[in-house]
Each structure stands twice: as structure tokens, then as C-alpha cells.
Amino acid sequence: MTVTRTRILAGNWKMNHGPSQAARFFADFLPLVEPADGRSVVFFPPAVSFAAAREAVQGRPDVRLGVQNVHWEAGGAFTGELSVSMAADAGAELVLVGHSERRHVFGETIDETVRKTVAVLEGGLDPVLCVGETIDERRADRAEAVVVEQLGPVLAAVPVEHLARLVIAYEPVWAIGTGVTATPADAAAMHAAVRRTLEEVYGAGAAGQVPVLYGGSVKPENAAELMSQPGVDGVLVGGASLDPAGFAAIVRAAG
Ligand SMILES: O=C[C@H](O)COP(=O)(O)O
């Protein structure tokens, strides 16, 4: 397994921080975080705040931006949706796909995550594919099986030449926004399952090409321990990414 992958510290603002709050966030956050080799900071602001975020991070190539969702079609009558090319035109480099709130609140299917991942890759952006089990699935000892079920069809549709642009985020649904975090050992075990699945599909060495992030109640207090686990390349942070000082502490916890 490669141990030199770039650390990724990602903040998903979900439906928080409009344009003026986004500008205030970056005015406070950026002076707290020096650019550092081997570390990439990513934000997923709401679409209406994207332009404000982009303006705020000009001159900071260590900070990249993504969108929280896209439609797989190139354009057309899809009220409320964004296409990949529109996101790219706005300056997005990454796209969240299959976030648990898309799957469990908005009914996004595995087939839709496949279409979105393919559209994102074909459009030249990098997908951050989110996978994770519910508490009932974990209690039924199906955590690993569920993650493999979510990953398999997507990986089957991603050609190996695009593999190095894929990012995977393991986010147990029961840990998201609950204050309950997976134990570092559980996170490490699930990350290992993700990497095994990558190697089963693409062959030996594939797992080293794909950063795998942990998400679910990551806070300044637990970020360093989670990121010290084997196979945990970074974090995808919701609530704690809304506070400039708190998220800066998480970024610094990456070393
Ligand atoms: O995308 C981020 C995850 O849903 C984690 O959210 P959280 O840090 O608020 O638990």
C-alpha cells in the first residue's frame, strides 16, 4: 500500500453558509492555514455560494472547490439541478457523489451514483464517492457487504485509466451529524475493506491510487487519531467545517 498519498481535508457545508457567510468564513479561515506540501483542502459550498468561495480562495492553490451534487445529463429541463460542465465552468474541480443525505433523504439510487460518477469523470472533474452503512446494517453485521454493494457497480463503470481521479469517502450513516464517531479501529477496518474491493476489481496496486477519506462527526479533538489509522488518507467533515477555527484545527491535525 502506498503511504505517500496527499492528505485531503474536505469540508461539506451542506445547506449552510450563503454567499456573505462564505466570504466571512474564508476571511477568517485562510490566515489560519498555511499552504503545505502533501495536503489539499477542499470545500463543497452550496451552489449559490460557489462564486463567493471561488473569489475568496483566489491565490490559494492549496484550497480547491467542489459541488455537492450534479445531474448526469449534459443539460436540459431538470429544474434545480446542475450539470458537470456548468460546475466545471464555475471553477469546480470535484463533485460529491452518493452522499448519504442524497441516498437516504433524496432517494438517490446506486444506479444514479454510477451515472453521476461516469458523467463527472467524463466531464474532467474528480468524483468523491461516498459510501457507508446505516446503524441497522451495522448491527446486522452487514457494514462491509453494504459498502461493497455501493462500490461495486460504480467501480465496474470506472475504467482503470480514470481510477487515479477517484476519491472514496467512507461515511457510516449513523456517525453523520450525530456526534458519534466510528472507533479508529472500525474506520481502519472499513477502509481496508474498501481497498480490498478496489484490488479485487482492478488488481494489485489499485488501492494505492485512490485516496480514502473518513467522514462522520469528525472534530478537532478526534481528527488526528482518525487520520493516524492505516489507510485513512483524510477526512470529509460536515458540521465542524462550518467554523473557521475548528476546521483550521482539523487541517493542522493532518500534519
Ligand atoms: O459530508 C460530511 C458528512 O456527512 C459528515 O458530516 P458531520 O461531520 O456533520 O458528521
UniProtKB/TrEMBL annotation:
Residue sites binding substrate per the record: N12, W13, K14, G177, S217, G238, G239
Any Pfam family hit: TIM
PROSITE patterns given in the database record: TIM_1, TIM_2
Hydrolase as UniProt keyword: no
Domain of life: Bacteria
Pathway in which the depicted protein is active: Carbohydrate degradation; glycolysis; D-glyceraldehyde 3-phosphate from glycerone phosphate: step 1/1; Carbohydrate biosynthesis; gluconeogenesis
Keywords: Cytoplasm, Gluconeogenesis, Glycolysis, Isomerase
Keyword Membrane listed: no
EC number: 5.3.1.1
Catalytic reactions of this protein: D-glyceraldehyde 3-phosphate = dihydroxyacetone phosphate
Cellular compartments annotated: Cytoplasm
Gene Ontology CC annotation, any one: cytosol
Gene Ontology annotations of biological process type: gluconeogenesis; glyceraldehyde-3-phosphate biosynthetic process; glycerol catabolic process; glycolytic process
Entry-linked InterPro entries: Aldolase_TIM, TIM_sf, TrioseP_Isoase_bac/euk, Triosephosphate_isomerase, Triosephosphate_isomerase_AS
Molecular-function annotations in GO: triose-phosphate isomerase activity
Active site: H99, E171
Main EC class the enzyme belongs to: isomerase
Quaternary assembly: Homodimer.
Family from the record: Belongs to the triosephosphate isomerase family.
Database matches in NCBIfam families: tim
Record function comment: Involved in the gluconeogenesis. Catalyzes stereospecifically the conversion of dihydroxyacetone phosphate (DHAP) to D-glyceraldehyde-3-phosphate (G3P).
UniProt name for this protein: Triosephosphate isomerase
Source organism of the structure: Longimicrobium terrae
The encoding gene: tpiA
